[in-house]
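In keeping with the milestone schedule agreed at the kick-off meeting, the structural modelling team has produced records for the first pair of proteins. Each record is given below as a sequence line and a structure-token line. The laboratory manager (R.T.) confirmed that both were archived under the project's standard naming scheme.
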Amino acid sequence: MNVLVAGETWFKHIVHVKGFDSFTNSEYEEGIQWLREAFHNGDIDMTHVPAHQVDKYFPKTIEELSKYDAVFLSDIGSNSMLLTASTFNDSIIQPNRLELIKAYVENGGGFGMIGGYMSFQGIDCKGKYKDTPIEDILPVTLMATDDRAEHPEGIHCELINKQHPILNSIPNEWPHFLGYNRLKAKQNATIIAEHKGHAFISTMEYGAGRTFAFASDCAPHWGPPEFVEWEHYDTFWQNAAKWLSKKI
């Protein structure tokens, strides 16, 4: 079983001020390690495309996408998927990879979006997936505004459909989360968990394929240590991949 995950990486450019003087440094960080280990522990082969390498390495054809049983986007905005260097710099026509993902799902593929500052609409709407082919296939409707719900006090989602295969071997008591993207389930979606009327975990059949939306993060900060180090973390993500791939 093969899955493709794009995103969950970032660069930081930091300014240090020490009295009169200042200097800068840059750092590269990844938040993919927990998800990578979860799939590895379930004998699921995961190909990871860091956010800054999507232009070069994310598939540009249905044939390339179809090599994978499921595709996940996590904390990567639509501009990174749409604006290749050749289009942005040289005005060269390139495939619309959001349309390709939609066609891939229509043909039987599995697609999941994991929450974050650059997922769904995200911070200052910079995720920018509203009114795109990705919104068409997701089990949720996206807000037209910044959709973040920050909860430094910690919140717990309420399980609605406890019999869903994605919750196989998962207890009813979940760790807390520190935030999520506010999402409204579509009429034909299945809500697995929610928080105050917002779909927290949801699924949907689309065409011959399946889609999944997880409103919070698979990594910090919204996903605190209590979640990413939870004994059932691996099983949950393995179940999600298997459900999208029609293995359960």
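The second protein of the pair:
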Amino acid sequence: MRVAKNVIITSCYNWSGGVLNLYEYMGKDIFREYGIPVPNGYVVSSPQDVKKFTNPVAVKSQILLGGRGKAGGIKFAKTDEELKNAVSTLLSTKVRNMTVTKVLIEDMLNIKHEYYVSIALNRAAKSPMLIASAMGGMEIENVPDDKIFKRIIDPSLGYSDFIGREASQFMGLPPELSKQFLDILKKLYNVYRGEDCELVEINPLVETGDGKLIAADAKVVIDSDAIYRHREFSIQDPEKTPLELKAEGKGYAFVELDGDIGVIANGAGLTMATLDALLLHKGKPRNFLDLGGTDNVDIVINAFDLVLEAKPKAILVNIFGGVTKCDTVAQGIVEAKKKFDIKIPVVVRLSGVHEVEGRKILQDNGIEAFSEMMPAIERVTKVF
């Protein structure tokens, strides 16, 4: 098992199909373990961590978006002063609106040619797919289709060298490069399977001046459903607020927004629909909180605790009960109101299992409850 690493789960309004997206330097750590050649390098989070300059280096901001180079997120240094300036500059700025908290310093490569290679989950085929091109160094979406090699890999058979030979021939690789390429493909597939990946990508895969193939970049995306098999990863997102990190620690999908209506709903789709409906009625959501499927009063109480900490002017609860029972949620709301002495308006929509019982519990405790979403939305936008 590898030592703990900091990673990010990509998130915003889209909580479906979540993935564990690793920084470049983490991907390269994994590549090294599997024997894929990568440049020598090290990571720093402070200018004081920079080692003594010995040779020209690339200084690369560690963010989870592409296009770093065009956005000024990659710099090159040929002197000690240039290295220190590059590190200080990148660590004190944002690249593509992403906070740079770490930079990767690695040997500058003598690039002769750039290739592209990846293994990605093809959802339609329910199988991994090899994608390769002799036109690396650019977004694969911008490469003409006739310049891209694609081949489905039967997961019951796994990767075979004949697939790699087809790709090598398609790309026009000479024999010595082809031999290295096949070795890298085999190891890349091992990474894909061994690390529960949805995507492993090298762009560019560089041919150096002395005829070596080296992974100049690394993108590794792990299926979030497999996190339980990867306890070596600790979750940390520099873009998250302290309250979002607190919610994450408690197991809630939570995003702070800039409005004034706190939102609690169950299921990512319903929560997102609730935000859209509020905006349609000129309401401004203060947060996104997905309660999930639960039949636990304490989970409801803790959700209120988080939303109240965001200091909204009103709270909207939108529940469509299936696994989540409406009377349980209602009891949690009542107990939360008493525990936290809630003075701001609370409007609730309850529909589904035990909805009649749930709405009666709320109404008996002076909390407005509706059976449909839109009347609740309309009401909460007018209560303050």
